Amino acid sequence: MRAPSTGLLPAAAVLTAAVLTAVASAGPAFAAETAKVVTGPPSAPGGVSTAACPAGTHLTGGGYRLQPDADGPVRASGPTADATGWSAQAERGSVVAFAVCETED
């Protein structure tokens, strides 16, 4: 014996198909971005290394790499005052800063 149909399954299927179609046809709400890692020059011992983002890009992050002569902690690591690059300074020894920059395609 077959159970009576409530009509819920077909309605749910139509609703699901409509939602999937709307999601599939909606384009992205943002422009694609391309990341580029920029490396600054090695600092003098105890000096600052700065990696600057090229024109047309914006800073999204950064970091540093201690050089083999570094003997001690990193004194500073962070965005530049104008947020267009990343600077780092080692307590003793040299450091290289890097900036992660993105551009909209």
What's the gist of this structure?
The chain has 105 residues and is α+β, with helices and mostly antiparallel strands. It has one helix at residues 8-25, and strands at residues 33-39, 48-52, 58-66, 74-79, 85-90, 95-104. A hairpin with a 5-residue loop joins strand 4 and strand 5.
Q: Keywords for this structure?
A:
105 residues, alpha+beta, Immunoglobulin-like, three-stranded antiparallel beta sheet, 1 helix, 17% helix
Shape category: elongated
Number of strands: 6
Helix content: 10-25%
Distance between the termini: 61 Å
Low-pLDDT sequence parts: 1-27
Output the radius of gyration: 26 Å
Helix count equals: 1
Nearest-integer average pLDDT: 78
Question: What structural category characterises the helix and strand content?
Answer: alpha+beta
Give the oligomeric state of the chains in this entry, treating copies of one chain as homo and distinct chains as hetero: single chain
CATH class of the domain at 33-104: Mainly Beta
- Largest sheet: number of strands, sense, barrel closure: 3 strands, antiparallel
Beta-strand fraction estimate = 35-45%
Task: Describe the SSE topology.
Layout: H1 8-25, E1 33-39, E2 48-52, E3 58-66, E4 74-79, E5 85-90, E6 95-104
Antiparallel strand pairs: 1-6, 2-5, 3-6, 4-5
